[in-house]
Task: inverse folding
């Protein structure tokens, strides 16, 4: 069974930074589509960023220029560096792995809370 272990959430003030980590098991992140999504209270889950085969990246409009997604293939881990955090970034952040091999597989992490507040 594929597992995604997230870490790095917390409480920060506006303008500060955080880095989220998501360690994957069984499927190399270098051949998967890795993503970060977030869900604020009372809102739908939304895309934050994706990285395909540790190469091509895509970002949600609200985080472009502030967040960076990357992978460490040796650690089989995907990161989300979040800079210049704003109160509207407050949400539970979820790691996602999508792999289209013999059959399509999608997995989610348990979520990590990010709170931006003064």
Result:
């Amino acid at each position: 069974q594929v597992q995604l272990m997230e870490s790095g959430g917390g409480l920060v003030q506006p303008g500060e930074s955080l880095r989220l980590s998501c360690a994957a098991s069984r499927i190399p992140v270098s051949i998967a589509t890795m993503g970060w999504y977030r869900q604020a209270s009372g809102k739908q889950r939304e895309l934050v960023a994706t990285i395909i085969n540790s190469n091509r990246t895509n970002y949600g409009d609200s985080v472009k220029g502030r967040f960076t997604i990357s992978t460490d293939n040796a650690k089989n881990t995907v990161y989300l560096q979040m800079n210049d955090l704003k109160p509207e970034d407050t949400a539970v952040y979820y790691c996602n792995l999508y792999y289209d091999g013999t059959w399509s597989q999608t997995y989610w992490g348990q979520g990590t809370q990010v709170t931006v507040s003064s």
The chain has a mean pLDDT of 96. The first strand starts at residue 4 and ends at 7. The two ends are 40 Å apart (CA to CA). The CA atoms of residues 2 and 59 lie 25 Å apart.
